[in-house]
């Protein structure tokens, strides 16, 4: 049990954690959609409320190195769990470096399963070094190992990124990889890219937002349906010609074919590895492979394959049962402990980030702890630069209603705008996204104040704070040959704010800026605001009480 805090009885009203997804604090305002936005509520908070900076990238959130940007999974894991765990990116890299992955039962079954069938292993996943969902080096190591273990054929189904890496960088990965595959292939081993497409167009949907994407992916990878090209390099070039101005993540599907015959359909007896380590966008396609009774779309054909995920994507659902590397065992989360204290909790976001404040927050578990209420606001199924306000107003409505109900002691929400619109690379839309969040925040904070509560306003990582690729030397925006700025679609390495909105304590409360302050300090800070001592496993509270 968490103990009562001796020094502070806790605020009378609710404690509300507000995550402004993709809201970082850049070193300067060049290319910042946040700086360009009209945002009176946030401006007033930064002018007069206690606020500090939190680390939200690299080792502070369990990534392998400080060159790794943050992302929503590791960010929400750290906020919810109050601790930093070595995350999928680091766990897989270690398992490969130490060789443990090859001795595991799952890898051995993948190889044995393929050998018992046609000798084919398929690898499906995000084809970049973004290290958010996957890393291409992991794929390379698996292809080499498959050959060493006598697998005859490897087929790769490559989801083009442009979202965690520069927006039109697909050929930087595809060209060298096809050369690598050609080099490693010989009379007894045949490895090629067989299909693919933009990650926001096929396969990598999340949170049941748009199953049609997954169906399209299934038809591409499994059935071999789609525009045909001789190889993946030709596919990327051809699709770009056919779709001028379309960035990698939105490119349509492609199928590699020899004389009209797709080279990599997935058949009975094949093995399939989904090589993303992150779960949110891996769960739906995994379900399509492993569920006997599957009703989300018509699979046409359901090949009986040996399937493995790089990690287990959902601990509660054990999805999938076979996985190459054990996921981080995230324990003692704040959701669980506040539940054990009998506190009623409320979590809300729109579909695109709903699992972030539930599944990621609770340590990659889809189950609910006692006393938790979750509310999902359905997201629009549109390119978000066309609706940059997204569902900020509706999320605020839901939060305000929950606060006014008086039923909840701890509440949390995520405003997706800064991130989802930031990922489109559209500067003007990202500015509107930030303005929409500011408008919603203003209403929400009034309700917090009226209820005698406090709010912690923060972000899981940056995104809208840098909308242009910056030239490394000059720090100025990099340009295309035609003089236009190169849009940046990925997250940033910048710190994020932690703001304390407090009209409840008569000015007794403040925040402490420590050197290592990061997202994992939020859980303990929330506990203290509730008048509870933090769980000993959690990183220290940043609350100051005078
Ligand atoms: C995505 O999945 O949309 C991006 O790869 C990462 O964005 P997120 O970590 O903010 O969800
Ligand atoms: Co993002």
TrEMBL record:
Substrate binds at residues 133, 163-164, 199, 206, 278-281, 353. GO terms for molecular function: manganese ion binding; phosphoglycerate mutase activity. Pathway: Carbohydrate degradation; glycolysis; pyruvate from D-glyceraldehyde 3-phosphate: step 3/5. Mn(2+) 1 binds at residues 419, 423, 491. One of its GO terms (biological process) is glucose catabolic process. Its cofactor is Mn(2+). It catalyses: (2R)-2-phosphoglycerate = (2R)-3-phosphoglycerate. Residues 14-533 form the Metalloenzyme domain. GO terms for cellular component: cytoplasm. Pfam families: iPGM_N, Metalloenzyme. Its EC number is 5.4.2.12. Keywords: Glycolysis, Isomerase, Manganese, Metal-binding. It is an enzyme of class 5 (isomerase). Mn(2+) 2 binds at residues 21, 72, 460-461. Residues 93-314 form the BPG-independent PGAM N-terminal domain. The keyword Transit peptide does not apply. The active site is at 72 (phosphoserine intermediate). Belongs to the BPG-independent phosphoglycerate mutase family. Catalyzes the interconversion of 2-phosphoglycerate and 3-phosphoglycerate. This is 2,3-bisphosphoglycerate-independent phosphoglycerate mutase. It comes from Azonexus fungiphilus.
């Amino acid at each position: 049990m968490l103990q009562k805090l001796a020094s502070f009885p806790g605020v009378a009203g609710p404690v509300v954690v507000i995550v402004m997804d993709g809201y970082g604090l850049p070193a300067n305002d060049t290319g910042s959609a946040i700086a360009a936005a009209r945002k009176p509520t946030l401006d007033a908070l930064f002018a007069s409320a206690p606020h500090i900076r939190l680390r939200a990238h690299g080792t502070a959130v369990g990534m392998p190195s400080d060159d790794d940007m943050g992302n929503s999974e590791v960010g929400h894991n750290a906020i919810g769990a109050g601790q930093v765990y070595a995350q999928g990116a680091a766990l897989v890299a270690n398992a490969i470096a130490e060789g443990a992955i090859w001795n595991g039962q799952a890898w051995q079954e993948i190889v044995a399963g393929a050998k018992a069938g046609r000798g084919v292993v398929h690898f499906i996943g995000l084809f970049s070094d973004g290290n958010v969902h996957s890393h291409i080096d992991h794929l390379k190591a698996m292809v080499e190992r498959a050959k060493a273990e006598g697998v005859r054929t490897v087929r790769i189904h490559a989801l083009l990124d442009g979202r965690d890496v520069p927006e039109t960088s697909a050929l930087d990965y595809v060209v060298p990889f096809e050369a690598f595959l050609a080099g490693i292939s010989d009379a007894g081993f045949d490895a090629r890219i067989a299909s693919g497409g933009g990650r926001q167009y096929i396969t990598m949907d999340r949170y049941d937002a748009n199953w049609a994407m997954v169906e399209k992916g299934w038809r591409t990878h499994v059935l071999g349906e789609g525009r045909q090209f001789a190889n993946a390099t030709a596919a990327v070039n051809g699709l770009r010609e056919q779709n001028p101005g379309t960035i990698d993540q939105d490119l349509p599907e492609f199928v590699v074919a020899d004389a009209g015959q797709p080279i990599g359909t997935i058949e009975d007896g094949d093995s399939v590895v989904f090589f993303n380590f992150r779960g949110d966008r891996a769960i739906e396609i995994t379900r399509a492979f492993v569920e006997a009774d599957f009703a989300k779309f018509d699979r046409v054909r359901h090949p009986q394959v040996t399937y493995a995920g790089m990690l287990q994507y959902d601990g509660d659902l054990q999805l999938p049962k076979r996985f190459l590397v054990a996921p981080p065992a995230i324990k003692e989360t704040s959701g669980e402990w506040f539940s054990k204290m009998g506190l009623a909790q409320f979590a809300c976001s729109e579909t695109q980030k709903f699992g972030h404040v539930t599944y990621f927050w609770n340590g990659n578990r889809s189950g609910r702890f006692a006393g938790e209420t979750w509310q999902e606001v359905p997201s629009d199924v549109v390119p978000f630069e066309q609706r940059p306000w997204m569902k900020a107003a509706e999320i605020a409505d839901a939060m305000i209603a929950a606060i006014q109900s008086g039923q909840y002691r701890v509440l949390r929400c995520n405003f997706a705008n800064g991130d989802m619109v930031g990922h489109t690379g559209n500067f003007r839309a990202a500015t509107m996204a930030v303005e929409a969040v500011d408008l919603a925040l203003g209403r929400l904070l009034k309700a917090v104040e009226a209820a005698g509560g406090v709010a912690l306003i923060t972000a899981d990582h940056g995104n809208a704070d840098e909308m242009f690729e910056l030239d490394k030397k000059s720090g100025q925006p990099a340009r295309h040959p035609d003089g236009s700025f190169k849009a940046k679609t990925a997250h940033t390495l910048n710190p994020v704010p932690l703001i304390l909105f407090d009209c409840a304590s008569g000015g007794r409360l403040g925040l402490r800026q420590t050197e290592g302050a990061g997202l994992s300090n939020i859980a303990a800070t929330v506990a203290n605001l509730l008048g509870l001592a933090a769980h000993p496993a959690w990183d220290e509270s940043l609350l100051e009480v005078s």
